[in-house]
């Protein structure tokens, strides 16, 4: 019996990168998965196709979790489609690096609306359906303690969700719902390719500082998330697991 058999999971921002890997990993473990996306339906459909081709169950659902109506509709669709909800993975996120001298309100609100408000709204909606044994897992970032220059706003959003998750771990514990965080280090994704980081001096510098000597892959993060979603992690809540190859 797979460790996630019978569970239903929603993964936000799952059309590519880490989110796509998480959706596939949860499905491989036996969960039925709602693959959320905002703009890339083709990407979400590709994830669903990969899951179903491997014998799993998945459906793609559009929704912007920074909007309360969309967040609620996403969770409601999961319950209507699969009959229950057991796992929420808050993976949706955006990042823009900018020196403090170039800070704008738009730069701030875009990141805080998706990265922080989105986590709050999706978790609020999910908490109405999660029962004993439920699991909320939020993807943060090791940037909160690496303190990368030009990332004040992005690092601020991730510091916020770390604090929020600690509060929610205590708030939801009486209902036996677990809340944990995974903080990836540098990971090779479509986003890091598009940003020109892959193959750059920046990547080489990061890898040189990483004790395990390589960049992370989406599957490295997905496997940690699948563990936290399973009953094997039943005694873990309020934790922040840094998955970074040892870089601090």
TrEMBL record:
PANTHER family: OXIDOREDUCTASE, SHORT-CHAIN DEHYDROGENASE/REDUCTASE FAMILY (AFU_ORTHOLOGUE AFUA_5G02870) (PTHR43639), SHORT-CHAIN DEHYDROGENASE_REDUCTASE FAMILY PROTEIN (PTHR43639:SF1). Signal peptide: none annotated. It holds the Pfam family adh_short_C2. Belongs to the short-chain dehydrogenases/reductases (SDR) family. This is 3-oxoacyl-[acyl-carrier protein] reductase. Keywords: Oxidoreductase. Residues 7-192 form the Ketoreductase domain. The keyword Oxidoreductase applies. It comes from Sphingomonas gellani. The keyword Oxidoreductase applies. SMART domains: PKS_KR. GO terms for molecular function: oxidoreductase activity.
